[in-house]
Amino acid sequence: MSPAIAPAVRRRSHPFLALLPVLIVAAACSGGPGSPPSSTQASVSPATSRAATSSAAASAPSTEPVASPSGTITLYTSVTQNTVDAVVGGWKAAHPGVEVEVFRAPTGEVAARIAADLQSGGLKADVLWLTDPLSMAGYSDQGLLQAWAPPGAAAIDPAYRTDTSFGTRLLNMVMIRGSDVTPAPADWKDLLAPGVKGAVGIPDPGFAGSAFAALAYFSQADGYGTQFYQSLKDNGATQVKAPDDVTTGVAEGRFKVGMTLDNSARTAIKKGAPIALAWPSSGAITIYSPIAAVDASANRPTADSLVDFVLSAAGQAAIAGTGWEPVVGAGGPAPEGSQVSPDWTAAFGKQKELLDAYRAIFGG
């Protein structure tokens, strides 16, 4: 069963055995789950700001105490290396003697590792920390994740948590342009303009979880659907692997505009790249990055401790310090406009359908 999640959310600006074949196919294509149904429309409702946590706490299930950690655990993650280092380092400093073996790779490669584990006796990870909720949903459906209520979960907006996984940070899919590209794109359909024909970069939803979540959003959104990707293809858009590859392509002048993550754009801008971030007027596509403890972990107290640390004030501060918008509390970059999300519940179970529809257009 897929846990219920709030329908598609518009946020205001603010200061798997059932899925195992899908994962294997996606990994073979380029490394991960992802893809869109044809034309389901996303409902949009007013957002709950991440500061408004009192109602979330009131509706949260009772929390469970986390036992003292010890020994070694294994973390599988698609989160950026600097963020993993900051968070794991903070947790280890608070608990001297614990060790974490980390397998970090793009979403597709993590999916392939999990699929290989399941084929050879069982999941070897104790904790999964992934980029998007669609990639996590299948593992919950397979009964691989622990259902519990870590103390830190009570402060998370219910739209960003389930009974097995908990949002840690928010990723915003935005547009990017070369500094000398005018006019600047104002909204997503400006990627279809004649002036950028043959010079648009997009990330592969079979490789990057954030791109897959964006695909899910467009597949549901009024006026977009799968046809939006066909229109991008018709306008000469080029598929690359990851959002960072789009950012690099725009910085090097291979693309005039593209689709990337705000963190990727901001990091490149700080390094002097000749690019500019363009926040879509209809809203950046906001994705929550979930963490979960594996139910069959041989060291559950330590796995649970790491999860709760990531959700704690210290963990959220570490996430913010590496350039991401935390799910709870202040810090990190402020959104530059409105934020929208897919109807996650409607997208659950449609990973293969989504990816097949995309592959029919861009191949791979």
- Give the full name of the CATH homologous superfamily of the domain at 171-285: Periplasmic binding protein-like II
In angstroms, what is the radius of gyration? 19 Å
Order of helices and strands: EHEHEHEHEHEEHHEHEHEEHHEEHH
* Morphology call: globular
Low-pLDDT sequence parts? 1-62
CATH architecture of the domain at 171-285: 3-Layer(aba) Sandwich
Helix count equals 13
**Helix fraction by DSSP (H/I, runs of at least 4):** 25-40%
Strand percentage: 15-25%
- Top-tier CATH class of the domain at 171-285: Alpha Beta
Structural overview:
With 364 residues, the protein is α/β, with parallel strands linked by helices. The chain has a domain at 171-285: D-Maltodextrin-Binding Protein, domain 2. The chain has 13 helices and 13 strands. The chain has helices at 20-29, 54-59, 81-94, 107-119, 133-141, 209-220, 227-234, 243-251, 262-270, 300-311, 313-321, 344-347, 351-362; strands spanning 9-11, 45-46, 72-77, 99-104, 127-129, 166-178, 200-203, 238-240, 257-261, 275-278, 284-293, 325-326, 339-340. Strands 1, 2, 3, 4, 5, 6, 7, 8, 9, 10, 11, 12 and 13 form a 13-stranded mixed beta sheet that branches. Strand 1, helix 1 (20-29) and strand 2 form a beta-alpha-beta unit. The longest helix is centred in the first third of the chain and has 14 residues, at 81-94. The two termini are 30 Å apart.
Structural key phrases:
D-Maltodextrin-Binding Protein, domain 2; 13-stranded mixed β-sheet; 364 residues; alpha/beta; disordered N terminus
